[in-house]
Design goal:
119 residues, alpha+beta, 21% strand, 3 helices, five-stranded antiparallel beta sheet
């Protein structure tokens, strides 16, 4: 059922504390942890504790939780001291966009120049 933890979801397991991760922040609705394959000096994932396959379905079903992810992304940028130099928040949606874990999540990237367009 949408929103419920999925037994086969890596991020649900991290949110539950069943799989270790380098946690940097936690709230009632989110968990943030360092990416295991960082693409920038600061690369943190922010996930909701509820399970939705991507950002669009999360925002449609639970817009407050989607907003919590964005708020936490900004807090992480401040904690990482990248808020003054610039940072990027990325939501990959679908395998063609690079999504590999189908649990909504935001990438917070910074600490180096981030060219446009990405890719």
């Amino acid at each position: 059922m949408a929103g419920e933890p999925q037994a086969d979801c890596l991020f649900c397991k991290i949110a539950a504390g069943d799989v270790p991760a380098t946690i940097v922040r936690e709230t009632e609705t989110t968990v943030a942890f360092r990416d295991i394959n960082p693409q920038a000096p600061s690369h943190v994932l922010v996930i909701p504790r509820v399970h939705y396959p991507d950002a669009g379905t999360l925002a449609a079903a639970e817009p407050t939780v989607a907003a919590d992810i964005l708020r936490e992304a900004a807090e992480i940028a401040a904690d990482e001291k990248i808020d003054g130099t610039g940072f990027r928040i990325v939501f990959n949606t679908g395998s063609g966009a690079g999504q590999t874990v189908f649990h909504a999540h935001a990438h917070v990237l910074g600490g180096r120049g981030l060219n446009w367009p990405p890719g």
